[in-house]
Amino acid sequence: MFDKSKCDFCGECLAWCPYIDVDRKEGGLLLERLAKGEPAEWVRKCITCFGCNEICPTQARPFDLILKRMEEMGNYVDTSLLNAIRDRFTAKGEFQTPSVKSPVLSLCTIEGVIPWAFKGPIFDGLDVVKGRHFFCNIMFPHLGNESLMLEGLKPLVERYAALGVAEVIFTHDDCYALMADIAPSMGISLPFKAIHLFEYLLRYLQEHLDEIRPLHKKIAYQRPCASRPTPAKEPLLDDIFSLIGVERVERTYDRKNALCCGQALKGFMQRGEKYPDYTTRNIEDAKKNGAEAMAFLCPMCLDAMGESCRAEELETWMISDLCRIALGESLPADAYGGA
Q1: The CATH classification of domain 209-337, taken from the options 3.90.79, 3.30.60, 3.40.50, 3.30.2120
Q2: Does pLDDT of 271 surpass 60?
Q3: What does pTM read for this prediction?
Q4: CA dist., res. 105 & res. 112, Å (int)
Q5: Core-most of 173, 209, 261, 315, by most CB within 10 Å?
């Protein structure tokens, strides 16, 4: 929730934004007018990356304000698109609490996109929850709607609480952001500990150091939008890469300056506006800085960029798969579009 008492309308967030071309002075004025409820067609240029919340020096959560105004305007995406996606991910039938032990692995609804990525010894022995009843709803802010996400938040926390586990490992960065950032901002406490995939992978690697075979690869990381709300976990990935022998190439579009993968533009293009080719920019940036592969945490980023990366002779890997390979595991032949 936007905290007006913390915002001094310095304009730093919008001046930083790579998708809206304004300086600090203009950015401050635009945000101040937005806070007053004045018309603001410029919010349609927002790519919904959550980045201004990460950048804000006073932690006022300006993206929350932008998102609220988007929904009030009602023209960020076509209503039929919003309704179709809502219907697609709405859970059918009554929730039946599964019998699981802690820690439990949450796959949200991403397994269908990357069915191979959370298999093998690293994940053996973990009970899994997945499906629409565990869908995190962070997709809806990307469609200019916060109400659907917030309406589903408390019931989702209650479903996880019903599992009776001490820890939930979130493989989907969106789910972790919802639990570790958005829920606390709404005054919702968790009766379990939210564990990010990075934390779990690092812990596993540290317990199996003698099994690691360094990969000796230079890899660019495509940091997803959902990492913006929880940037404190960023050093965990650096530690993972160090353990498995990966050099995270320094490039322009990484860390706080990460650039959208281009997935969201599939929705934007339906209203006829033109946007830069962010997929190409990311790939060119990676190759220019010596990367031989692109690593992903978000399955949607992989979906948006994978084919283009491979066409430019950049290997594509999910972070979990890099860890599996470093531990001597072979992936299925059909992973990443293989035969």
Answers
A1: 3.40.50
A2: no
A3: 0.94
A4: 15
A5: 173
